[in-house]
Automatic annotation (TrEMBL):
UniProt protein name: ABC-2 type transport system ATP-binding protein
Pfam families membership: ABC_tran (PF00005)
Domain ABC transporter: 41-264
GO cellular component, one term: plasma membrane
Compartment annotation: Cell membrane
Keywords: Antibiotic resistance, ATP-binding, Nucleotide-binding, Transport
Gene Ontology terms: biological process: response to antibiotic
Molecular function GO labels: ATP binding; ATP hydrolysis activity
Ranges that cross the membrane: none
Tagged with keyword Membrane: no
Start and end residues of each stretch annotated as Disordered: 1-36
Length: 335
């Protein structure tokens, strides 16, 4: 595993890159026979422009077979545009993509790669089972129907038509459509956005079983807890570039420092923000969150100035803080 930090010159293209590829697990018995040498996804110099909008500004990315990668970024960062190109649904303006060494269109046609997209639809006049049966007939090595229904947690709605499904049920049915071809690479664009808490949990349990078989998953999400819990690597996009790339721990570490939380009566965020050791402060209903470069110094200063402060907690900065800090850099660049 190698770690490297790189800061490029131009502000719009500035990139903090931690390259840290978790070694893929050795192949267990029964794992799909992916070609060992080819990356599951190789992206080189990828660009996409829509008129004046540069949605993707020249990104390079390798994803190894067996990796589970979360694609994060604020709205408009270029995640969906990248995913569409990876799946061969839209053409790059420049650059190249291969999936297991093949053109994306061919890899998808051969059933090597499959996707759950934000706006995919089902066939309204068919039941979920019938739709799955139809898709299954197009594939060489489909997953058995019972296994798909179980993995996608849709056994109870298999005989319902597409029109009779709720948003979360449709999302699970679309997941089943992606699974039925038995793909080695699954790409998910905000896969749980319409799901309730229970369905989200079941979805990720099922996904864990899927990746335990050595397959590759790339998912775009706005739920940082999903990335934190599930991904072994995070790629953070910002303004069409890759702002950070590494394990969750490495991305977290990009925002050095700690978070000090406390109940602080009679304070203002401005005063708290000027305490020694504190780099930023928020205050809501007496609950303070202090971003600290030196939490020991900050704690001493806090208790000296506010002896009534209580319920104090100090923790390492989380992925959310890293995300906010790395995307705040974008706002600063834009200003
Ligand atoms: N078909 C299109 N025509 C013109 N501009 C587009 C098109 N699709 C995307 N864009 C623009 O490209 C940029 C990247 O959009 P994209 O949908 O890839 O972002 P995203 O990271 O997926 O955002 P979100 O999290 O909101 O889904 C945005 O500025 C968007 O407005």
């Amino acid at each position: 595993m190698k770690t490297k930090e790189k800061t490029e010159a131009g502000p719009a293209e500035r990139t903090t890159t931690v390259t840290a590829r978790p070694e893929p697990e050795p192949k267990a018995e029964g794992k799909p026979a992916a070609p060992a040498v080819e990356p599951a996804i190789r992206i080189t110099g990828l660009r996409k422009t829509y008129g004046d909008v540069q949605a993707v500004k020249g990104i390079d990315l390798d994803i190894a077979p067996g990796e589970v990668v979360a694609l994060l970024g604020p709205n408009g960062a270029g995640k969906s545009t990248t995913v569409d190109m990876v799946l061969g649904l839209s053409k790059p303006t420049a650059g190249g993509i291969t999936l297991f060494g093949k053109d994306p269109y061919i890899a998808v046609r051969e059933g090597l790669a499959s996707a759950v997209l934000q706006d995919g639809s089902l066939i309204d006049d068919l039941s979920v089972r019938e739709t799955l049966g139809m898709i299954s007939s197009l594939h060489k090595n489909p997953m058995p129907m019972d296994e798909v229904l179980r993995r996608a947690n849709i056994e109870d709605i298999a005989d319902r038509r597409g029109t009779k499904l709720s948003g979360g049920q449709r999302q699970r049915a679309r997941f089943a459509c992606a699974l039925i071809g038995n793909p080695q690479l699954l790409i998910l664009d905000e896969p749980t956005s319409a799901m309730d808490v229970g369905s989200r949990r079941k979805f990720w349990e099922s996904m864990r079983k899927f990746t335990d078989t050595g397959r590759t998953v790339v998912f775009a999400t706005h739920y940082l807890d999903e990335a934190e819990e599930f991904a072994d690597r995070v790629v953070l996009m910002r303004s069409g570039t890759i702002a950070a790339d590494g394990t969750v721990a490495q991305i977290r570490a990009l925002t050095a420092g700690r978070m000090l939380r406390a109940s602080v009566p009679d304070a203002t965020a401005k005063e708290l923000g000027t305490l020694p050791g504190v780099t930023g402060a928020t205050l809501r209903l007496g609950q303070a969150e202090l971003h600290c470069e030196d939490s020991d110094k900050a704690l001493r200063a806090l208790l000296t100035k506010y002896p009534d402060a209580h319920d104090i907690e100090i923790s390492a900065s989380g992925l959310e803080e890293a995300f906010l800090s790395l995307t705040a850099a974008e706002e600063a660049d834009a200003a």
